[in-house]
Sequence to fold (550 residues):
Amino acid sequence: MGRKFAPRRRLLQRRGLEQVVALDGVSFTLQTGRCLALEGPNGAGKSTLLKILATIIAPTSGRATVAGHDVAVESAAVRRVVGYAGNADRSFFWPLTGRENLVFFGQLAGMSAADADAAADRQLDLVGLAAAGSNRVSGYSAGMRQRLGLARALLHAPALLLLDEPTANLDAEYRDVAIEILNGVVGEGRSVIVATHDPGLVAETATDRLRLEDGRVVTPRAASDTVRYAVDLAPDDGSEESQRLFVDDLGDGHVLAERLSQAIAEGRDIVSVEKL
Amino acid sequence: MANMRISDYARLQLAFLQRDWQYETTYRGMMILQLLGIVGTLIIFFSIGKLVDPDAASLGEYGGQYFPFALIGLVVSDYFNTGLRSFSNRLRLAQTTGTLEAMFTTAASPRLVLIFSGTWDFIVSTARIGIGVALSLLFLDVQFDADIVAATVLAILSLMTFVALGLFAAALILIIKRGDAVAALGNIFATVFAGALFPISVLPDWLRWVAYVLPLHYSLDGLRRALLVGDGLSELSANVVIVGVSALVLLPASIIGLGSAVDFVRRDGSVGMH
Fold:
């Protein structure tokens, strides 16, 4: 199986006592070695989409696969290749040190105690918490917990990194560190999906973009819309991997038309595009 | 889970024990309070034992002494309460601290995460019981006339039953997010109806039927007879069959139930809710 994934969802999720449609017909694929930015207002479904891919939430309809594994029926296999950083503020054992937390989660990720020890030190160093690693998490600032969350997601070198607002509490220095880490992950051929409201993060890391509103992928409604669906025309080597669809900010519909025309003129295959 | 080796299970369980040890040692004061609690409880029941007539007919089949009778009741109900509360308390803590969602995104099976989370409490319970029994043997003149084989068989089967009830409670809490009532109800059944602290023969006739449908009653009765008057497996066959059938039915059912509860909250989107 390839290392691309393709979710397609209409998800009912409980919010309070109500069942609401959290995602509705979202479809996309992402190639390995790419970073997809999920954008959209609060409540658009970005976090829900990440949680589906992390297997925390099971889809009520549709299908999503990660590394060829269906998130609904092969969740264990999916979790082995995914690193997830959600709300870091409330996801650690606060009486334990940052390092103890990482070693524990490393072992849950399938690592031996020795490997988890080594990986914890490596990741603490990477996110700038080497000195604070032996301090209890209860004494960490929100930004430090955010970095610890990133370190935890990276522990087992996952093929797909799922990050929910990874720069929300970071100062400028560590925001740059986080961006550097994400670009490094993508540079190694791994993939990242990041839900964010940070335009700078998108600009500096995203190779692909997807905007959600009310659980739907936003479709262009007029030529002047700035957010557009577009087609990335991958070289036609005949493989599924070579083709990908992504959402991009094209500025206006003329650019899209130009790309399509160019693609047709060059005779390159175009993958199907939904809701264009 | 299907591809895991025994060493993988052991490694995962050790990770949880290491975490809980680290957690526990940050609250050293609690350990001292627990030790004082054991000593206090023993003194209370030893004193009550002095007030109870040694020839009381209701204690006759258990050797006639109240304190050894109560001591075994305390031991069994401690394990019972640990079984009932450990998984659900750990689960509740993970729900409210937000660590449940984080653990559910790891390669470890959510079911194993929930089961292995509760093991530490059984170790603490065993240590607490060991200290209590040792103090009773050394300083409070308790003597056992035990059939070790019968006691061991009944203890293992009882423990399996208690674990199963705890896993059912955890499955319920995973879905309804509240568990206080489950634990409180369990405690009442143990102390009042099953005969942890007094023989059920002192209950009104119309209330005794409650004890007869509780596997815990047969655990208490069997373990007391095995430890206090030396009854063997043949004398305790009814107890062994009832507790054994309960364990063999409830344990697999509870593991399946826990898995179904995990699937339910994943579909419901409520893993992180509390």
In short: Confidence is low (pLDDT under 50) at residues 1-11, 220-257, 263-276 of chain A. Residues 158 and 210 of chain A are 22 Å apart (CA to CA).
